[in-house]
Amino acid sequence: MSTTQTLPERTRILVVGAGFAGLGTAIKLDEAGRTDFVVVDKGDTVGGTWRDNTYPGAACDVPSQLYSFSFAPNPNWSRSFSPQPEIHAYLQDVAQRAGVLDRFFFGTSVEDAVWDETDQTWTVTTTAGTVVADVVISGSGGLSEPKNPEIKGIEGFTGEIFHTARWNHEVDLTGKRVAVIGTGASAIQVIPEIAKQVAHLDVYQRTAPWVMPRHDRSYTAIERLGFKLVPGLQKLYRTAIYWGRETYVPAFTWQPKILAPVQAIAEGNIKKGISDPELRAKVTPDFQMGCKRILISNTYYPALAQDNVEVITDGIAEITPTGIVTRDGVARDIDVLIVATGFYTTDQPIAHHIKGREGRTLGDVWAEHGMASYKGTTTSGFPNLFQIVGANTGLGHSSMVFIIESQIAYILSALEQMEAGGITAVEPTLAAQEAWTEDMQRRMKRTVWSTGGCASWYLDEHGRNTTLWPRTTFAFRGLLRNFDLDKYEVTTRTTGTTDDKELVA
User: Fold this and answer.
1) Pfam families from the entry (predicted)?
2) How far is it, in rounded angstroms, from Cα 418 to Cα 422?
3) Tens digits of pLDDT across the chain (505 residues)
């Protein structure tokens, strides 16, 4: 890989991140005949989220057939829901076969990106040097920076402490007293695994999640052979799963009552895994299904029912050097503290390192009114900046890879039109961005995410859902099929030395 190479001082396109978004962008740029790009990533290989999250039990909760590039099907999935090592290996294999790794620079973090209005370029400072780029494509994602809880005394804890996304594999949990803070997607995968080996496990639950049975299975040898040898078989599986998932959309966005039978199944999952009425009551959510992320597991509830596991719902008052004290005054000593409190999703860290036209960071702009971009991809005041998995692009029912590929196609269309029209810079008009954002928030009002009676990580500090896409995924793809230049402020370079800025009607 390119770790021994020197980052170029100049490039046409700089891609940030080497997960699904960054890798997919690099491959599609290369397929389009564009070699004038580089990809930088803080890690040591491709993979992004699936490289960094190596905690016990890490796996995807989207079916394997959907959680892969449409242009790179994987006939070797072992299960219907893929474990983390297989997804990471898949991304490494795709990158290797695509032949694009010579333009990847690993161990390289972006420190600042500043728009130069005079030169119509981005000056990007990284830990490996400074590079000037015409276009910056951010694929850093919303699940890249772990979010630690702000709890009194946490800095003074003297035992081992780490976030699930930064798992410390050198710590042996065997026979230890362990606490897990959080009961989200990562926690419900971790808890059943570590409950098998620890002496005692305290699970600190602020809000109980709805957990559905995980209909996971191993693919048979015949199926895997068919994926390799029968043309169209794997595509048939993918298509069937895709459309099956799309049937969930009305329940989330239009009529949450449709989820009542699904909620009954989740309640049955609790009863099946837990016999104690008091514990059942503790882990039964008090909000409508779908309001928060729906999780899937067959082992979570049985793990909570183990004799060496305690579910604690009293709020945490403080963390002492040796343990945790809850608001009722009870102190529980522990050896290891595992934080499973998610990521900065509505306040993406890279936004604080990108300075646009007026010298303000993207983070500053979003802090005022919430994360907002046009089509989740471009932002007024930040020319030639494209973001993959931006505002209101997240999903609660299907694969983010579908969204990512849709955004990549939109960006490639933009690059084609820029070159064809002699355009040096594009940014969405403020009117177009505001109209898009208003439509998003209008559609959000009747969704279960807004009406279900919960406070989720989907919502920002203003109480707005700036995370999820409130429509079907095929609607998103249709809206991003072609770059709509008429919604953009455009700068063209004339044959002279001046720049002509025009607002395309």
Assistant:
1) Pyr_redox_3 (PF13738)
2) 6
3) 444 578 999 999 999 999 999 999 999 999 999 999 999 999 999 999 999 999 999 999 999 999 999 999 999 999 999 999 999 999 999 999 999 999 999 999 999 999 999 999 999 999 999 999 999 999 987 655 677 888 999 999 999 999 999 999 999 999 999 999 999 999 999 999 999 999 999 999 999 999 999 999 999 999 999 999 998 999 999 999 999 999 988 888 888 888 889 999 999 999 999 999 999 999 999 999 999 899 999 999 999 999 999 999 999 999 999 999 999 999 999 999 999 987 655 567 889 999 999 899 999 999 888 899 999 999 999 999 999 999 999 998 899 999 999 999 999 999 999 999 999 999 999 999 999 999 999 999 999 998 888 888 788 877 889 999 999 999 999 999 999 999 999 999 763 333 444 443 2
Q: Are 167 and 332 in contact (CB under 8 A)?
A: no
| Residues contacting residue 496 through CB under 8 Å, at least 6 positions apart | none
Neighbours of 55 (CB within 10 A): 23
- The structural domains of the chain, ordered by start, are 2-145+344-503 (3.50.50.60), 154-209+248-339 (3.50.50.60)
Reduced 3-state DSSP string for 104-157 = EEECCCEEEEEEECCCCEEEEEECCEEEEEEEEEECCCCCCCECCCCCCCHHHC
Residue of 328, 322, 299 whose CA lies nearest to 179 = 322
Residues 6+ apart with CB under 8 A from 44: 3, 106, 107
- CA atoms of 17 and 22, how far apart (whole Å): 5
Asked whether the beta carbons of 212 and 266 are under 8 A apart, the reply is yes
- CA distances for 272 relative to 167, 211, 212, 287, angstroms: 30, 12, 11, 21
58, 183, 202, 321 from 331: Cα distances, Å: 30, 20, 12, 11
- Amino acid at position 43, single letter: G
* Tokens standing for residue 159: 């035992």
DSSP 435-463: HHHHHHHHHHTTSHHHHSS---TTB-TTS
Q: Is the pTM of this model over 0.85?
A: yes
Contact 76, 83 (CB under 8 A): no
